[in-house]
Amino acid sequence: MKVFNELSDIKEVEIMPGLHAKILHSKNQTIVFWRIEEGADLPAHSHPHEQISIINSGDFKLRIGNKERVLSTGSIAIIPSNVEHEAKALTYCEITDVFNPCREDLKYSENEG
User: Fold this and answer.
1) Residue 67, Cβ density class (10 Å: 0-12 exposed, 13-18 middle, ≥19 buried)
2) pLDDT block averages, 10 residues each, the chain of length 113
C-alpha cells in the first residue's frame, strides 16, 4: 500500500453503465471517487460495509432503507451496514464514497502498487 497517491494516477474503471470509479484501498477502508453520468441508476443493494457518501457536485436521488432524498453539492449521507439503498443521478455527479471495512470485492483495481 502506497502512503502517498495522486488521484490522476489511479486507473478509472466502469463499474456499471454510467458509473466510473477510481478506487483506493487502505488497510481498513476503501475510498471510491465516482464520476456518474446523468441518468445512471444504481440498483437496490446492501453490503456489510458502513458507507459515507459525499456529493462533490450534481444532484443525486438516494434511497436508504425507507428514506429518500435528493442530495446536491455539499450533502453527505451515512449508509449503515446491511441497509438496502439505491440511487439515480439526476445530473452529472461527482461523489466520494468511504467504506469501512475495506471493500475486498472492489480490489480488482490496479491501484494497489
Assistant:
1) exposed
2) 91 95 95 98 97 98 98 98 98 98 77 43
